[in-house]
Amino acid sequence: MTKDKEQKDDLMEKIVSLCKRRGFIYPSFEIYGGLAGFYDYGPLGVALKKNITNLWWKQFVTDREDVYGIDSALVTKKEVLQASGHARGFADMLSECEKCKHRFRADQLPERSDLKSGKRSDLCPECGGKLGEARQFYMMLETHIGAAEDEASLAYLRPETAQGIFTNFKNIVDSFHPKLPFGIAQIGKAFRNEIAPRDFLFRVRELEQMEVEYFVKEADWKPAFEMWRKEVLSFIEAIGIDAKKVSELEVADGDRAHYSRRTIDFEFEFPFGRKELYGLAYRTDYDLRNHENASGVSQKFLDEDIDEPFIPHVIEPSLGVGRSLLAVLLSAYTEDEMNGEPRTYLKFKPSVAPVKIAVFPLLKNKPELVAKAREVYGVLKKEFGAVMFDDNGNIGKRYRRQDEIGTPFCVTVDFDTVEKDQAVTVRDRDSGKQERVMIKKLFEFLNDKL
Ligand code: ATP
To answer: Which residue has a Cα nearest atom 24 of ligand 1?
Structure first.
Protein backbone atom coordinates (compact mmCIF):
# COMPACT_ATOMS: atom_id res chain seq x y z
CA MET A 1 0.00 0.00 0.00
CA THR A 2 1.38 3.46 -0.86
CA LYS A 3 1.93 5.97 1.92
CA ASP A 4 -0.60 8.33 0.36
CA LYS A 5 -3.32 5.65 0.31
CA GLU A 6 -2.47 4.64 3.86
CA GLN A 7 -2.91 8.25 5.03
CA LYS A 8 -6.23 8.58 3.22
CA ASP A 9 -7.58 5.32 4.70
CA ASP A 10 -6.36 6.56 8.04
CA LEU A 11 -8.28 9.85 7.64
CA MET A 12 -11.55 7.99 6.92
CA GLU A 13 -10.95 5.75 9.94
CA LYS A 14 -10.33 8.79 12.14
CA ILE A 15 -13.55 10.44 10.97
CA VAL A 16 -15.65 7.29 11.39
CA SER A 17 -14.23 6.77 14.86
CA LEU A 18 -14.70 10.41 15.92
CA CYS A 19 -18.30 10.32 14.65
CA LYS A 20 -19.05 7.27 16.76
CA ARG A 21 -17.13 8.31 19.88
CA ARG A 22 -18.62 11.78 20.04
CA GLY A 23 -22.19 10.91 19.13
CA PHE A 24 -22.49 12.02 15.50
CA ILE A 25 -23.10 8.78 13.63
CA TYR A 26 -23.46 5.16 14.71
CA PRO A 27 -23.64 2.04 12.52
CA SER A 28 -27.29 0.89 12.64
CA PHE A 29 -28.25 -2.24 14.61
CA GLU A 30 -24.71 -2.61 15.89
CA ILE A 31 -25.69 -4.82 18.84
CA TYR A 32 -26.90 -7.31 16.23
CA GLY A 33 -23.74 -7.08 14.14
CA GLY A 34 -24.77 -4.07 12.04
CA LEU A 35 -26.17 -3.99 8.50
CA ALA A 36 -24.09 -2.74 5.58
CA GLY A 37 -25.28 0.57 4.17
CA PHE A 38 -27.33 1.73 7.18
CA TYR A 39 -26.38 4.39 9.73
CA ASP A 40 -28.10 6.12 12.64
CA TYR A 41 -27.55 9.75 13.56
CA GLY A 42 -26.72 10.54 17.19
CA PRO A 43 -27.54 13.86 18.87
CA LEU A 44 -24.67 15.80 17.27
CA GLY A 45 -25.19 14.15 13.88
CA VAL A 46 -28.88 15.09 13.89
CA ALA A 47 -27.98 18.67 14.81
CA LEU A 48 -25.39 18.88 12.02
CA LYS A 49 -27.82 17.31 9.55
CA LYS A 50 -30.64 19.66 10.51
CA ASN A 51 -28.36 22.69 10.18
CA ILE A 52 -27.40 21.55 6.67
CA THR A 53 -30.93 20.69 5.55
CA ASN A 54 -32.31 23.93 7.08
CA LEU A 55 -29.74 25.99 5.16
CA TRP A 56 -30.71 24.15 1.98
CA TRP A 57 -34.43 24.71 2.62
CA LYS A 58 -33.82 28.39 3.27
CA GLN A 59 -31.70 28.90 0.14
CA PHE A 60 -33.66 26.65 -2.24
CA VAL A 61 -37.20 27.23 -0.95
CA THR A 62 -38.04 29.97 1.54
CA ASP A 63 -35.66 32.68 0.29
CA ARG A 64 -37.17 32.31 -3.19
CA GLU A 65 -40.55 33.28 -4.54
CA ASP A 66 -40.75 30.55 -7.17
CA VAL A 67 -40.24 27.29 -5.26
CA TYR A 68 -42.94 25.35 -3.36
CA GLY A 69 -41.97 22.87 -0.65
CA ILE A 70 -43.71 19.52 -0.23
CA ASP A 71 -43.28 16.25 1.68
CA SER A 72 -44.58 13.22 -0.21
CA ALA A 73 -45.05 9.52 0.63
CA LEU A 74 -41.99 7.25 0.77
CA VAL A 75 -43.80 4.05 -0.13
CA THR A 76 -44.62 4.44 -3.78
CA LYS A 77 -47.33 2.86 -5.88
CA LYS A 78 -45.65 0.62 -8.45
CA GLU A 79 -47.41 2.28 -11.40
CA VAL A 80 -45.49 5.51 -10.64
CA LEU A 81 -42.11 3.83 -10.87
CA GLN A 82 -43.15 1.79 -13.87
CA ALA A 83 -44.07 4.99 -15.68
CA SER A 84 -40.86 6.76 -14.65
CA GLY A 85 -38.79 3.88 -16.06
CA HIS A 86 -37.29 2.89 -12.71
CA ALA A 87 -39.00 -0.50 -12.54
CA ARG A 88 -37.20 -1.61 -15.72
CA GLY A 89 -34.24 0.76 -15.77
CA PHE A 90 -33.04 1.35 -12.22
CA ALA A 91 -30.38 -1.31 -12.27
CA ASP A 92 -26.61 -1.69 -12.11
CA MET A 93 -24.53 -4.39 -13.76
CA LEU A 94 -23.33 -6.85 -11.14
CA SER A 95 -20.44 -9.33 -11.29
CA GLU A 96 -20.09 -12.09 -8.73
CA CYS A 97 -16.83 -13.86 -7.88
CA GLU A 98 -17.14 -17.58 -8.52
CA LYS A 99 -14.72 -18.31 -5.69
CA CYS A 100 -15.44 -15.99 -2.73
CA LYS A 101 -18.98 -14.97 -3.86
CA HIS A 102 -18.27 -11.25 -3.32
CA ARG A 103 -20.41 -9.04 -5.56
CA PHE A 104 -19.13 -5.97 -7.41
CA ARG A 105 -20.64 -3.21 -9.51
CA ALA A 106 -19.23 -3.94 -12.96
CA ASP A 107 -18.62 -0.25 -13.72
CA GLN A 108 -16.57 0.14 -10.55
CA LEU A 109 -14.18 -2.75 -11.09
CA PRO A 110 -10.59 -1.65 -11.59
CA GLU A 111 -9.31 -1.42 -15.13
CA ARG A 112 -7.03 -4.24 -16.27
CA SER A 113 -3.47 -3.04 -15.99
CA ASP A 114 -2.23 -5.39 -18.73
CA LEU A 115 -4.58 -3.79 -21.26
CA LYS A 116 -4.42 -0.12 -22.16
CA SER A 117 -7.96 -0.25 -23.53
CA GLY A 118 -9.77 0.67 -20.31
CA LYS A 119 -11.32 -2.82 -20.20
CA ARG A 120 -12.54 -3.83 -16.74
CA SER A 121 -10.84 -6.64 -14.85
CA ASP A 122 -12.41 -10.10 -14.94
CA LEU A 123 -10.61 -11.10 -11.76
CA CYS A 124 -11.98 -10.59 -8.26
CA PRO A 125 -10.31 -7.60 -6.49
CA GLU A 126 -10.77 -9.43 -3.16
CA CYS A 127 -9.39 -12.94 -3.81
CA GLY A 128 -8.19 -12.98 -7.44
CA GLY A 129 -10.84 -15.59 -8.36
CA LYS A 130 -12.74 -15.54 -11.66
CA LEU A 131 -15.67 -13.12 -11.93
CA GLY A 132 -18.88 -14.42 -13.50
CA GLU A 133 -20.71 -12.75 -16.41
CA ALA A 134 -22.11 -9.32 -15.48
CA ARG A 135 -25.89 -9.34 -15.06
CA GLN A 136 -28.54 -6.74 -14.30
CA PHE A 137 -29.30 -6.13 -10.64
CA TYR A 138 -32.44 -4.16 -9.79
CA MET A 139 -31.87 -1.64 -7.05
CA MET A 140 -35.32 -0.79 -5.76
CA LEU A 141 -36.42 -2.13 -2.39
CA GLU A 142 -39.81 -3.77 -2.53
CA THR A 143 -42.60 -4.02 -0.03
CA HIS A 144 -46.23 -5.16 -0.04
CA ILE A 145 -49.29 -3.18 0.92
CA GLY A 146 -52.21 -4.89 2.58
CA ALA A 147 -52.66 -8.52 3.62
CA ALA A 148 -51.78 -10.37 0.43
CA GLU A 149 -48.17 -10.64 -0.71
CA ASP A 150 -48.59 -10.93 -4.44
CA GLU A 151 -47.89 -8.99 -7.62
CA ALA A 152 -50.98 -6.83 -7.07
CA SER A 153 -49.87 -5.64 -3.61
CA LEU A 154 -46.28 -4.94 -4.69
CA ALA A 155 -44.99 -1.42 -3.96
CA TYR A 156 -41.56 0.17 -3.81
CA LEU A 157 -39.63 2.29 -1.35
CA ARG A 158 -38.88 5.29 -3.53
CA PRO A 159 -35.37 5.35 -5.05
CA GLU A 160 -35.43 9.17 -5.38
CA THR A 161 -37.65 11.88 -3.96
CA ALA A 162 -38.28 13.29 -7.45
CA GLN A 163 -41.23 11.09 -8.43
CA GLY A 164 -43.27 12.30 -5.43
CA ILE A 165 -42.74 15.79 -6.83
CA PHE A 166 -43.87 14.89 -10.36
CA THR A 167 -47.01 13.19 -9.07
CA ASN A 168 -47.86 16.42 -7.20
CA PHE A 169 -47.18 18.73 -10.14
CA LYS A 170 -50.87 19.11 -10.97
CA ASN A 171 -51.80 19.64 -7.32
CA ILE A 172 -49.40 22.55 -6.97
CA VAL A 173 -50.56 24.09 -10.25
CA ASP A 174 -54.22 23.80 -9.20
CA SER A 175 -53.65 25.14 -5.66
CA PHE A 176 -51.21 27.98 -6.36
CA HIS A 177 -51.54 28.85 -10.08
CA PRO A 178 -47.82 29.53 -10.46
CA LYS A 179 -46.32 31.00 -13.61
CA LEU A 180 -43.38 29.33 -15.33
CA PRO A 181 -40.64 28.98 -14.31
CA PHE A 182 -41.38 27.54 -10.87
CA GLY A 183 -40.06 24.70 -8.77
CA ILE A 184 -41.26 22.07 -6.32
CA ALA A 185 -38.80 20.93 -3.65
CA GLN A 186 -38.55 18.31 -0.99
CA ILE A 187 -36.12 16.77 1.45
CA GLY A 188 -36.60 13.12 2.32
CA LYS A 189 -35.47 9.54 2.45
CA ALA A 190 -34.84 7.36 -0.58
CA PHE A 191 -33.82 3.73 -0.75
CA ARG A 192 -31.39 1.94 -3.05
CA ASN A 193 -30.36 -1.67 -2.70
CA GLU A 194 -26.76 -0.80 -3.54
CA ILE A 195 -24.62 -3.78 -4.56
CA ALA A 196 -21.62 -2.58 -2.63
CA PRO A 197 -22.46 -0.01 0.07
CA ARG A 198 -19.17 1.49 1.26
CA ASP A 199 -17.14 4.46 2.33
CA PHE A 200 -19.24 5.34 5.38
CA LEU A 201 -22.01 7.81 4.45
CA PHE A 202 -20.96 7.96 0.81
CA ARG A 203 -22.83 4.93 -0.47
CA VAL A 204 -25.68 3.80 1.76
CA ARG A 205 -28.91 1.92 1.14
CA GLU A 206 -31.17 4.29 3.04
CA LEU A 207 -30.23 7.80 1.98
CA GLU A 208 -31.67 11.27 2.17
CA GLN A 209 -31.95 13.70 -0.70
CA MET A 210 -32.67 17.39 -1.15
CA GLU A 211 -34.20 17.87 -4.58
CA VAL A 212 -35.88 20.56 -6.65
CA GLU A 213 -37.75 19.94 -9.87
CA TYR A 214 -37.73 23.30 -11.63
CA PHE A 215 -40.30 23.56 -14.42
CA VAL A 216 -39.48 25.72 -17.43
CA LYS A 217 -40.54 26.30 -21.02
CA GLU A 218 -38.37 24.12 -23.22
CA ALA A 219 -36.68 27.16 -24.81
CA ASP A 220 -35.60 28.40 -21.37
CA TRP A 221 -33.81 25.33 -20.03
CA LYS A 222 -30.26 26.61 -20.53
CA PRO A 223 -30.40 29.76 -18.34
CA ALA A 224 -32.28 27.78 -15.67
CA PHE A 225 -29.57 25.10 -15.73
CA GLU A 226 -26.91 27.80 -15.31
CA MET A 227 -28.86 29.48 -12.47
CA TRP A 228 -29.05 26.18 -10.53
CA ARG A 229 -25.40 25.41 -11.22
CA LYS A 230 -24.52 28.65 -9.40
CA GLU A 231 -26.97 27.93 -6.57
CA VAL A 232 -25.38 24.53 -5.97
CA LEU A 233 -21.89 26.08 -5.87
CA SER A 234 -23.05 28.75 -3.46
CA PHE A 235 -24.62 26.09 -1.19
CA ILE A 236 -21.31 24.19 -1.18
CA GLU A 237 -19.62 27.35 0.16
CA ALA A 238 -22.43 28.10 2.59
CA ILE A 239 -22.13 24.80 4.46
CA GLY A 240 -18.33 24.89 4.58
CA ILE A 241 -17.36 22.25 2.02
CA ASP A 242 -13.83 22.98 0.81
CA ALA A 243 -14.52 24.49 -2.64
CA LYS A 244 -10.96 23.76 -3.76
CA LYS A 245 -11.81 20.07 -3.61
CA VAL A 246 -14.96 20.41 -5.73
CA SER A 247 -14.98 20.13 -9.50
CA GLU A 248 -17.63 19.85 -12.17
CA LEU A 249 -17.84 16.91 -14.53
CA GLU A 250 -19.89 17.13 -17.70
CA VAL A 251 -21.38 13.64 -17.91
CA ALA A 252 -20.91 12.15 -21.37
CA ASP A 253 -23.78 10.91 -23.61
CA GLY A 254 -24.07 7.16 -22.79
CA ASP A 255 -23.15 7.67 -19.11
CA ARG A 256 -26.19 9.79 -18.19
CA ALA A 257 -29.30 8.46 -16.44
CA HIS A 258 -32.08 7.29 -18.76
CA TYR A 259 -34.06 10.53 -18.36
CA SER A 260 -31.32 13.13 -18.77
CA ARG A 261 -30.23 15.22 -21.75
CA ARG A 262 -27.53 17.08 -19.85
CA THR A 263 -25.96 16.29 -16.48
CA ILE A 264 -23.22 17.89 -14.45
CA ASP A 265 -21.80 15.95 -11.53
CA PHE A 266 -20.32 18.09 -8.79
CA GLU A 267 -17.45 15.94 -7.63
CA PHE A 268 -15.56 16.09 -4.37
CA GLU A 269 -12.06 14.84 -3.68
CA PHE A 270 -12.95 12.21 -1.09
CA PRO A 271 -10.02 10.30 0.48
CA PHE A 272 -11.18 7.26 -1.56
CA GLY A 273 -11.18 9.17 -4.85
CA ARG A 274 -12.86 11.97 -6.78
CA LYS A 275 -16.55 11.03 -6.64
CA GLU A 276 -20.02 12.46 -7.18
CA LEU A 277 -21.20 14.74 -4.42
CA TYR A 278 -24.28 16.20 -6.15
CA GLY A 279 -25.95 16.06 -9.55
CA LEU A 280 -27.63 18.63 -11.77
CA ALA A 281 -29.73 17.21 -14.60
CA TYR A 282 -31.89 18.44 -17.43
CA ARG A 283 -34.67 15.82 -17.29
CA THR A 284 -36.57 17.30 -20.26
CA ASP A 285 -40.33 16.57 -20.13
CA TYR A 286 -39.58 12.86 -19.75
CA ASP A 287 -41.22 12.29 -16.36
CA LEU A 288 -44.38 14.38 -16.71
CA ARG A 289 -44.95 13.02 -20.21
CA ASN A 290 -44.65 9.43 -19.01
CA HIS A 291 -46.96 10.09 -16.06
CA GLU A 292 -49.50 11.66 -18.39
CA ASN A 293 -49.37 8.63 -20.71
CA ALA A 294 -49.54 6.07 -17.89
CA SER A 295 -52.16 7.75 -15.67
CA GLY A 296 -54.29 9.26 -18.40
CA VAL A 297 -54.33 12.52 -16.42
CA SER A 298 -53.15 15.58 -18.34
CA GLN A 299 -49.93 17.11 -17.02
CA LYS A 300 -50.12 20.00 -19.47
CA PHE A 301 -49.63 23.56 -18.42
CA LEU A 302 -51.49 26.56 -19.78
CA ASP A 303 -49.17 29.52 -20.20
CA GLU A 304 -50.59 32.96 -20.99
CA ASP A 305 -47.96 33.56 -23.71
CA ILE A 306 -48.44 30.27 -25.55
CA ASP A 307 -51.63 29.20 -27.32
CA GLU A 308 -51.51 25.44 -26.79
CA PRO A 309 -51.17 23.76 -23.36
CA PHE A 310 -47.82 21.94 -23.13
CA ILE A 311 -45.74 19.79 -20.79
CA PRO A 312 -43.00 21.85 -19.12
CA HIS A 313 -39.38 20.74 -19.11
CA VAL A 314 -37.42 20.21 -15.91
CA ILE A 315 -34.06 21.10 -14.39
CA GLU A 316 -33.18 19.10 -11.29
CA PRO A 317 -30.51 19.88 -8.71
CA SER A 318 -30.22 16.73 -6.57
CA LEU A 319 -28.15 16.84 -3.40
CA GLY A 320 -27.43 13.95 -1.04
CA VAL A 321 -27.65 14.79 2.66
CA GLY A 322 -25.20 12.07 3.80
CA ARG A 323 -22.64 13.00 1.15
CA SER A 324 -23.00 16.64 2.27
CA LEU A 325 -22.27 15.62 5.85
CA LEU A 326 -19.26 13.55 4.85
CA ALA A 327 -17.80 16.35 2.71
CA VAL A 328 -18.43 18.89 5.51
CA LEU A 329 -16.73 16.60 8.07
CA LEU A 330 -13.76 15.97 5.76
CA SER A 331 -13.42 19.70 5.03
CA ALA A 332 -13.60 20.59 8.74
CA TYR A 333 -11.32 17.88 10.14
CA THR A 334 -8.04 19.47 11.25
CA GLU A 335 -5.04 18.31 13.24
CA ASP A 336 -2.63 20.87 14.67
CA GLU A 337 -0.65 21.64 17.77
CA MET A 338 -1.79 23.95 20.54
CA ASN A 339 0.35 24.86 23.54
CA GLY A 340 2.82 22.17 22.52
CA GLU A 341 0.14 19.44 22.43
CA PRO A 342 -1.35 17.76 19.38
CA ARG A 343 -5.06 18.38 18.98
CA THR A 344 -7.88 17.41 16.64
CA TYR A 345 -10.70 19.78 15.88
CA LEU A 346 -13.59 20.24 13.49
CA LYS A 347 -13.40 23.64 11.89
CA PHE A 348 -17.14 23.84 11.21
CA LYS A 349 -18.68 27.06 9.98
CA PRO A 350 -20.70 28.40 12.93
CA SER A 351 -23.87 28.05 10.84
CA VAL A 352 -23.53 24.24 10.69
CA ALA A 353 -21.78 23.60 14.03
CA PRO A 354 -24.03 21.30 16.13
CA VAL A 355 -23.07 23.16 19.31
CA LYS A 356 -22.43 26.89 18.97
CA ILE A 357 -21.24 27.69 22.49
CA ALA A 358 -20.15 25.67 25.54
CA VAL A 359 -20.34 27.19 29.03
CA PHE A 360 -18.13 25.99 31.89
CA PRO A 361 -17.73 26.81 35.56
CA LEU A 362 -13.95 26.79 36.18
CA LEU A 363 -14.44 24.28 39.03
CA LYS A 364 -17.47 22.09 39.45
CA ASN A 365 -17.33 21.86 43.26
CA LYS A 366 -17.68 25.61 43.83
CA PRO A 367 -21.41 26.35 44.07
CA GLU A 368 -20.99 30.08 43.39
CA LEU A 369 -19.18 29.36 40.09
CA VAL A 370 -21.69 26.69 39.07
CA ALA A 371 -24.64 28.99 39.86
CA LYS A 372 -23.19 31.86 37.82
CA ALA A 373 -22.25 29.55 34.93
CA ARG A 374 -25.80 28.10 34.94
CA GLU A 375 -27.20 31.62 34.82
CA VAL A 376 -24.99 32.57 31.84
CA TYR A 377 -25.84 29.24 30.17
CA GLY A 378 -29.57 29.86 30.62
CA VAL A 379 -29.38 33.27 28.94
CA LEU A 380 -27.25 32.06 26.02
CA LYS A 381 -29.37 28.94 25.52
CA LYS A 382 -32.48 31.04 25.17
CA GLU A 383 -30.77 33.20 22.54
CA PHE A 384 -28.72 30.66 20.58
CA GLY A 385 -30.40 27.28 21.27
CA ALA A 386 -27.46 25.00 20.60
CA VAL A 387 -25.53 25.76 23.80
CA MET A 388 -23.96 23.09 26.02
CA PHE A 389 -23.17 23.16 29.74
CA ASP A 390 -20.06 21.18 30.62
CA ASP A 391 -18.42 20.71 34.01
CA ASN A 392 -16.77 17.33 33.40
CA GLY A 393 -13.00 17.00 33.91
CA ASN A 394 -10.58 19.91 33.91
CA ILE A 395 -10.72 22.92 31.59
CA GLY A 396 -8.08 21.48 29.23
CA LYS A 397 -10.13 18.33 28.72
CA ARG A 398 -13.31 20.32 28.15
CA TYR A 399 -11.61 22.44 25.48
CA ARG A 400 -10.35 19.31 23.74
CA ARG A 401 -13.80 17.74 23.82
CA GLN A 402 -15.47 20.87 22.41
CA ASP A 403 -12.74 21.22 19.75
CA GLU A 404 -13.40 17.67 18.64
CA ILE A 405 -17.11 18.37 18.09
CA GLY A 406 -16.37 21.72 16.44
CA THR A 407 -17.87 24.14 19.01
CA PRO A 408 -16.78 27.62 17.88
CA PHE A 409 -16.74 29.28 21.35
CA CYS A 410 -16.23 28.23 24.98
CA VAL A 411 -17.25 30.54 27.82
CA THR A 412 -15.70 30.06 31.28
CA VAL A 413 -16.95 31.49 34.55
CA ASP A 414 -14.13 31.83 37.12
CA PHE A 415 -13.52 33.44 40.51
CA ASP A 416 -12.95 36.88 38.99
CA THR A 417 -16.37 36.63 37.37
CA VAL A 418 -18.17 36.38 40.69
CA GLU A 419 -15.79 38.30 42.92
CA LYS A 420 -14.49 41.10 40.71
CA ASP A 421 -15.46 41.96 37.19
CA GLN A 422 -18.77 40.30 36.13
CA ALA A 423 -16.86 39.21 33.00
CA VAL A 424 -16.15 35.77 31.51
CA THR A 425 -13.38 34.27 29.40
CA VAL A 426 -14.38 33.54 25.81
CA ARG A 427 -12.08 31.16 23.96
CA ASP A 428 -11.99 30.91 20.16
CA ARG A 429 -11.82 27.35 18.79
CA ASP A 430 -9.50 27.94 15.83
CA SER A 431 -6.89 30.29 17.33
CA GLY A 432 -7.24 29.27 20.98
CA LYS A 433 -7.24 32.99 21.75
CA GLN A 434 -8.96 34.00 24.98
CA GLU A 435 -10.73 37.28 25.64
CA ARG A 436 -12.38 38.74 28.69
CA VAL A 437 -15.93 39.87 27.92
CA MET A 438 -18.42 41.58 30.27
CA ILE A 439 -21.46 39.36 30.83
CA LYS A 440 -23.78 42.20 29.87
CA LYS A 441 -21.97 42.47 26.50
CA LEU A 442 -21.70 38.69 25.95
CA PHE A 443 -24.78 38.23 23.78
CA GLU A 444 -23.74 41.03 21.43
CA PHE A 445 -20.14 39.77 21.28
CA LEU A 446 -21.12 36.19 20.40
CA ASN A 447 -23.97 37.19 18.13
CA ASP A 448 -21.55 39.23 15.99
CA LYS A 449 -19.19 36.30 15.64
CA LEU A 450 -21.81 33.63 15.09
P1 ATP B 1 -23.75 7.17 -7.95
O2 ATP B 1 -23.31 7.22 -9.39
O3 ATP B 1 -22.68 7.59 -6.97
O4 ATP B 1 -24.42 5.89 -7.58
P5 ATP B 1 -26.13 8.49 -8.77
O6 ATP B 1 -25.66 9.17 -10.01
O7 ATP B 1 -26.90 7.24 -8.88
O8 ATP B 1 -24.88 8.28 -7.77
P9 ATP B 1 -28.27 10.31 -8.34
O10 ATP B 1 -29.28 9.34 -8.76
O11 ATP B 1 -27.91 11.42 -9.26
O12 ATP B 1 -26.93 9.53 -7.90
O13 ATP B 1 -28.69 10.87 -6.92
C14 ATP B 1 -28.57 12.22 -6.56
C15 ATP B 1 -27.73 12.39 -5.32
O16 ATP B 1 -28.18 11.53 -4.26
C17 ATP B 1 -26.26 12.03 -5.51
O18 ATP B 1 -25.55 13.09 -6.10
C19 ATP B 1 -25.83 11.77 -4.09
O20 ATP B 1 -25.58 12.99 -3.40
C21 ATP B 1 -27.05 11.11 -3.48
N22 ATP B 1 -26.95 9.64 -3.52
C23 ATP B 1 -27.29 8.83 -4.52
N24 ATP B 1 -27.09 7.54 -4.21
C25 ATP B 1 -26.60 7.54 -2.95
C26 ATP B 1 -26.22 6.51 -2.03
N27 ATP B 1 -26.31 5.23 -2.34
N28 ATP B 1 -25.77 6.88 -0.81
C29 ATP B 1 -25.69 8.18 -0.47
N30 ATP B 1 -26.05 9.19 -1.28
C31 ATP B 1 -26.51 8.88 -2.50
So the answer is: 203
**Residue 279 in contact with ligand 1 by CB distance below 6 A:** yes
- Taking alpha carbons only, the member of 426, 200, 217 closest to residue 325 is 200
- pLDDT of 117 reads 56
User: How many other C-beta atoms are found inside a 10 Å radius of the C-beta of residue 332?
Assistant: 20
Alpha-helical (H) ranges within 196-239 are 221-238
Question: Which has the closest alpha carbon to 186: 352, 312, 73?
Answer: 73
**Single-letter amino acid, residue 295:** S
416: left (phi over 0), alpha (psi -120 to 50) or beta: alpha
* This model's pTM is above 0.90: yes
Round to whole Å and give the CA distance between 164 and 406: 36
Q: What is the reported pLDDT for 101? A: 85
What's the confidence (pLDDT) of residue 91? 75
Which of 104, 318, 319, 328 has most ligand 1 atoms within 8 Å of CB, for mutation?
Answer: 318
Give the strand order in the sheet containing 141-144: 75-77, 154-157, 141-144
Contact criterion met (CB below 8 Å) for 42 and 361: no
**Interval between CA 187 and ligand 1 midpoint (Å):** 14
Specify whether the CB–CB gap between 47 and 252 falls below 8 A.
Answer: no
How many Cβ atoms are within 10 Å of 151's Cβ, its own excluded? Answer: 8
What atom of ligand 1 comes closest to residue 205's alpha carbon? 27
Half-sphere exposure of 111 (CA within 13 A, CB side): 7
Per DSSP, helices labelled H in 84-138 are 86-89
For 226, residues 6+ apart whose C-beta sits below 8 A from its C-beta are none
Say how far apart CA 168 and CA 70 lie, in whole Å: 9
Profile the chain (450 residues) by mean pLDDT over runs of 10 residues.
73 97 98 97 98 98 98 98 90 85 83 62 88 87 90 94 98 97 98 95 98 97 98 98 98 88 98 97 97 98 90 98 98 94 96 98 95 97 97 94 98 96 96 96 96
